[in-house]
UniProtKB/TrEMBL annotation:
PANTHER family hit by this protein: D-2-HYDROXYGLUTARATE DEHYDROGENASE, MITOCHONDRIAL
UniProt KW Oxidoreductase keyword: yes
Identification of the protein by name: FAD-binding oxidoreductase
Family per record: Belongs to the FAD-binding oxidoreductase/transferase type 4 family.
Organism: Lysobacter korlensis
Keyword Flavoprotein: yes
Amino acid sequence: MTDQRLERLRRLAPELRLLTDAADLEHYGRDWTRRWTPAPLAVALPASADEVQSIVRWANDEHVAVVPSGGRTGLSGGAVAANGELVLSMERMNRVVGFDAVDRTLTVQPGIVLEAVHNAAREHGLAYPVDFGARGSCSIGGNIATNAGGIRVIRYGNTRNWIAGLKVVTGSGEVLDLNRGLVKNASGYDLRHLLIGSEGTLGVVVEATLWLADPPPPTQVMLLALPSFEALMQVFAAFRARLELEAFEFFTDRALHHVLVHGAQRPFAEDYPYFVVAEFASGSEAREAAALAAFEFCVEQGLVLDGVISQSDAQAAQLWRLREGITESLARHKPYKNDVSVRVSAMPAFLAETQALIERGYPGVDVVWFGHIGDGNLHINVVPPEGMAQDVFVAQCEQVTDLLSAALARHGGSISAEHGIGLVKKPYLLDTRSEAEVALMRGIKRVLDPNGIMNPGKVFDA
Ligand code: 2HG
Ligand code: ZN
């Protein structure tokens, strides 16, 4: 390690673990987007908030950019380090720090994996209800940085709803202890919510206090086959009116094709174009009867063509695998991803317009639709045609995303529902947010990160 800047960091924080091997730079320099070539200066793995603060102060002195890094499961390039940055990996800060039974809070370090948070909450007879497919790899710090959503938002909301307190080191190296677990706190601006979803551009979380929920009720999972996109929202309305929904997700036959190729079990003998995975409270005769009635109603209306209902946890997990396995089953194709949202009430009109736009924009191309339809959130993954160069493919996709982004602007939607802006959606930010808003964001960044060292180039350019 010959870099003078790193030598000075070593002197400031003698215990700090620093990695500079090519394999480590490659590993920690990328996230799941796989579009950029990793090229960080080094990787720092602090073990304490004090070390994080030393690193941020050093970065200000040396004018080194810092990329905060969790599980790097992000899909928008928010954790990519491709320009000589220092990767600040929170991987070693992964402990549960405390639990309070009266407050019903769990205090954790940012590098803890989401699944470990679920397990810790369960050990105390409670639940941390934010959940999604990357639960085994993503970290709570990254969840907070992107205000992650996932599969239970219709019932529990986004990560933001569950953050009782945050300790952060800002870009200027200050430590802030925000909200401290208070339920009520009307003492001026709530800076906690400014940090949530800021994608590491304002500061880095060094500790989080999470609210916990009652354990979920016993549930059952239904897989439904649908004839059309139009039926989706009607089935959602019928189910929401009759059942206590925990999740309501959809995917298309192309998504099913990919998860089946990837080893999942075929659910129906016949082919159908659209599918829904619905999870709902069960465990009583009344609830089971309501589920059957909802199903029968939708069948009678011609909205549902076929269905199965889980009779065990293992069967429920098998049905969920069809939906949760989609991202992984597509990964080897390096798909181009869209993660868009509109108000739920705008979804039918937006869906019709988007379907036409995608069919025109991608004639004959494998387009995979899925997502959290009950939250107005669509994932549209485009699989590159065999043999097409990645840059040519991305350029073509971006032309379609230009149109999609304009359609979103007309419908008052967002170019990023839950994956963040990062690098991937930066060109479209001004379709979703006004000039005045982005100017304010820049101003806020200047206050919290005056030297622009925190994840520069992500979300917007300075
Ligand atoms: C999901 O809902 C994730 O499964 C990933 O948000 C979506 O791969 C995607 O596009
Ligand atoms: Zn999603």
